[in-house]
Amino acid sequence: MDKKYSAYLCTGCGIGDAVDMEALSGVVSSEMNMECKTHQALCSADGRTLIDADINDSGINTVVIGACSPRVMQDEFDFGDDKITIRANLREQVAWSNPADADKEYVQEQASDYMRMGCTQAQKSELPDPFQLEEGTNKKILVMGGGVAGLTAANEAAAAGYEVTLVEKSDILGGKAVNWRQSFPTKAPWTDMETPIVNDLIQAVQDSDKITVKTATEVARTSGAPGNYNVTYKQAGTKSEWDAPAKVGVDEQDAIDKGTMEDPNAGLKHYMDDNPEGEKFGAVIMATGWTPADVSEYEHLGVASQNVVTNAEFEKMAGQGKIVRPSDGKPVESVAFVQSPGGAEHDKDFPYCNSVTSLVALKQAKYVREDNPNGKAYILYQHMRTPGSMELFYKAAQNDDGIFLTKANVMKVEEGADGSLSVEAEDTLLNENLSLNVDMVVLAAGMVPTTKDANVVNLAYRQGPSLIDLDLFDGYADSHFICFPYETRRTGVYACGGVRKATTVDETIDDATGAALKAIQCFESADRGVSVHPRSGDKTYPEFFMQRCTQCKRCTEECPFGAIDDDEKGTPLPNPTRCRRCGTCMGACPERIIGFKDYNVDMIGSMVKAIEVPDDDEDKLRFVVFVCENDAYPAIDMAAMRRLGISNLVRIIPVRCLGSVNMVWIKDAMSAGMDGAMLLGCQYGDDYQCHFVKGSELADKRMVNIAETMGSLGLEVERVAVTQVAINEYHKIPEIINEFVEEIVEMGPNPFKGF
Amino acid sequence: MTMKVDPDMSFIKYLKSAGGDTLKNCYQCATCSVVCPLSKDGSPFPRKEMILAQWGMKDKLIGDVNTMLCHNCGDCNTYCPRGAKPGEVLGAIRAYAYTHYGFPQGLAKLASDGKNLPILIGIPAAIVLVLWLISGGMHMPEGPVDFGNFFGHWDFHWLTKTTFFIDIIFLPAAAFSLFAAYKGVSAMWNKMSESLEISSDFSPSAKQFTLEFLWPAIKETVQHKRFNECGTNVDRVKGHLPLLLAFIGLLLVTGYSFVRKDFLGLIYPNLHGPIPLYDPFKLLANISAVALLVGVAILWANRKKMEADGKAAPTFYDWFLIWEIAAVGITGLGAELLRWADFGVLAYLAYYLHLVSIFMLFFYMPYTKFAHMVYRTFAMAFEKYRESSFVQKESS
Question: What pTM was computed for the model?
């Protein structure tokens, strides 16, 4: 594109009061060689007319707006997809960040730098050219699992007009719900149990001409990418040469080559091999559910007795008819539902115990009452969790004369000679220890997600077959419960139901519907060549200048979403439809060959260099702060709106994610004589808030390395820093930035300044 | 201590039918224990009683001192976030306890059920009627209406015929009632004592018991000290206090009348016949009668309002006592007014009904809500006893 530039400065919202606009305009026109116009309210109809006239009359196609934050007035400054628009944040970061009595000279320099950076960014930006799959986009959905979640997802996707193949490992559809006697209430008054709807769901799936069902089938491997997955099936329980290969890292490959380690993938097809027999899909919905937790370790609860069963076993018995005691077939009169293992660690629940298992106890207590008008059901709990309207279900159960509830620490369950069980409990609400004599004891075994111990999704990816880092979520197929529901660390794979979180049938249906919509959104976005959440609609994608690649594999290793495969030599093979456009690969690449059309190493580097660093003034130090645009940048805007004040020695550059920060920018800044550099991003670790999961964590590691390098050059390591901030912590922004500045001011200027 | 738990489902059903229909609503938040003036550290009353009731732990509850001490001030009902109405549940437990301790059991059960109301009225109505027939007094005597001639007249100087018949009806009934109350209260006392470890060789003498425990309890009752601490339902004091004072007044008048007619009357024959209006005791009697009617009317209205507001369920246990007291008051005052108006037949008929209602009130006292008079007083005595050195020394 032949670029024709024009810059516009807005004097409104206090910008004109803080800055000498004429001088600023002069910087743009003389230093940056761009025509520059000033208006008192660029966002007004009048202001817009001014810009539109230049676009239409003078063929301007690259616009630099020096006004408010790029986070606001986005419609007002949208000049169409064929124009490049760059926003320099003069309002929040200059006018609103300086106190009224700030030194005018400093403020003017700050505003000038932002315009220099904005114009540089405009010069280095190109219009995006969206990625298209060569084969075209496949819009079929693979649903793994034929339980309530899978059936619902299949029905919903079919209802939206998409073809679905549903794969179920067992011989029949329905999953766990098939054996249930009843399910929880799903409507007002939330007191009456309902006939499980699973049979209706099965019927709907079987009646649909858009859904193909494959029972007794497993997915051996899923290769490819969203819009172009290639799935190989196998008979359930068998092995196949197409089973997904385990991840083999660089060191492991060395060991295998030297013969010191056995190849875990011996006999399996290479992960990049393409099975011509495979079936193509656009997206995958993982609805593989859960399994009851193993409670056999709790010997003090009498697990050896036949009359002590898990809730899952009890449900099965209830589904078959009147409940009888396993040891002798006696109709059951009294049952104790034990919700927590008790004993010394009495506040701990059974593994994977949750609100659903609380509700199950209430439901099964009702069975005891249904089967026998004199039946007695004791629920001994440490935690009774009945969220939302389920509180009414709890109330209804509580109101039953024969259901007895108490918080209790169950110490012992013992079988008597006649098969009955004695239950001893301490710390009860009755203020005394209890001894109950019951026919059966039901233990609240939790719901363990199938992803806890198995790969399940079986991806043929460079980063291995499973969803990664699930230990952060106790094995649940999750990536961030609040920010990314249904999403996994693999774009195109969406989880729902028991595999994602312990859910009731009602919640599972909501969940599965959401996952189906996510799956559709995914391949429809791929079809339009744009990114999915969180950079929804982004048309750019990372482009590689392969001639200079050294096959270091950093990008393939570090991509949080496993988007990059590789060939035998280690040359990266990017899959843009798996990519979420965070730029972590760009930050990782030591050769700096990865970049986006509107965001690349050269562009940001040039912006850093565009900052004017006075080399003869002890007071005018310069700091660059790379700020994650997801949370930290809005936090800075909010701090500005509240006029909290940020040092005017600082220049802020937004980045897609701290993971995309290439360390060369830090070197650029330091060699330009700047006095400090800081990265401001999201929290990482167990409770990460990073929108791209790994970005801020990787940035932190890289910064440790760069600090070491600086140290060896004789520069103080304190001149570079990484800080985590949450979007609601705007009040901490001045403290974080200003303290960093003050520390370095005390330390003195960069000793290499001026060289 | 470990307790064997085997919930008594029939007990739960009974409580639900006797005003405690909300008991299963309780989810043990203990708001009631926070507002209840009876609740103490380590004894979360009535939260604990609520779960014991939900679990059908009859044995624990009938020996529970606090349950007996509760005067249903209603704070717990007002503040309960789940509408479990602990106060109503405790009332139902007390009703159950009076029947449980009642002696003889057959009569106690009879008096606990509204279905038996015709029999409950029928027994005294028949007794008085039969004796009235036997006395031969069942005809209009000459002269102005004089209830002294209700059972007729004879010329035996030392005891009038009517007094004789009144005595043979009411003295055995009162004795029986007192004995039954004694039996019930001592059963309760024993049950309550089970939870304390007391050795039998260290117990208060009758005098110590009366002076140290019983008398202070009676004093506290008369002063309505605890009742006045009521937060939300203080109106009930306005009904209950006049009623209590009326009963005391009428007790004094009855005593005076007994002395005047049965003893002084032997020497001064002109003391027979109606006590003149200017007599301070007659004045007290009439004031008490009015106080009784006012008190019962306030309680009646209160109860109706509570039921209308959904704060209480109508039960035979509660209403029977209100009806009884109202009947005693109305027939008593009615008889007096009719006597003054000299409506002969009606006046005697009203007097007959008055006798029947008094009989009912006292004869069924140990089994109906009226029993709270003795059970509560002794529970208060027990409370003082429990905190006294007789018990504390033993346990420490």
Answer: 0.86
Across the interface, of A376, A399, A407, the residue whose CB is closest to B25 is A399
> CA A463, CA A460: separation in Å to the nearest integer?
8
Per-position pLDDT tens, chain B of length 396:
688 899 999 999 999 998 899 999 999 999 999 998 888 887 899 999 999 999 999 999 998 999 998 888 888 998 999 999 999 999 999 999 999 999 999 999 999 888 999 999 999 999 999 998 888 877 777 777 888 778 887 777 777 788 888 888 988 999 999 999 999 999 999 999 887 766 666 778 888 888 888 988 888 888 877 777 776 777 778 888 899 999 999 989 988 887 887 777 777 777 766 778 888 888 999 999 999 999 999 999 989 998 898 888 889 999 999 999 999 999 999 998 998 888 878 898 999 999 999 999 989 999 999 999 899 999 999 988 888 877 765 444
The reply to whether A294-445 and A543-594 are identical in fold is: no
Is A598 within 8 Å of A661 (Cβ atoms)?
no
CATH architecture of the region A294-445: 3-Layer(bba) Sandwich (3.50)
Phi–psi pair at B227, nearest 5 degrees: -60, -40
Mutation pick from A399, A400, A401, A438 vs chain B, by most beta carbons of B within 10 Å, is: A401
Q: For residue A199, which of A183, A215, A210 has the smallest C-alpha distance? A: A183
Q: Which of residues 402-441 of A touch B (CB under 8 A)?
A: 402, 404-407, 424, 429-437
Both tokens of A401, joined, read 């004369």
Residue A4 touches chain B, beta carbons under 8 Å: no
Asked if residue B382 lies in contact with residue B65, where contact means CB atoms within 8 angstroms, the answer is yes
Query: For residue A751, which amino acid is it?
Result: P
Rounded distance between C-alpha atoms, residue A205 and residue A150, angstroms: 10
User: For A141-291+449-527, CATH number?
Assistant: 3.50.50.60
The β-bridge partners of B117 are: none
Q: Could you give the ipTM of this predicted complex?
A: 0.83
**Rounded to whole angstroms, what are the CA distances from B330 to A267, A583, B114, B300, B353?**
104, 94, 21, 14, 10
Nearest to A401 among B12, B44, B57 (CB): B12
Task: At A48, list the tokens.
Answer: 């817009």
What class has domain A543-594? alpha beta
Angle, CA of A326, A331 and A333, to the nearest 5°: 105
Residue A668 and residue A720: Cα distance in Å, rounded? 13
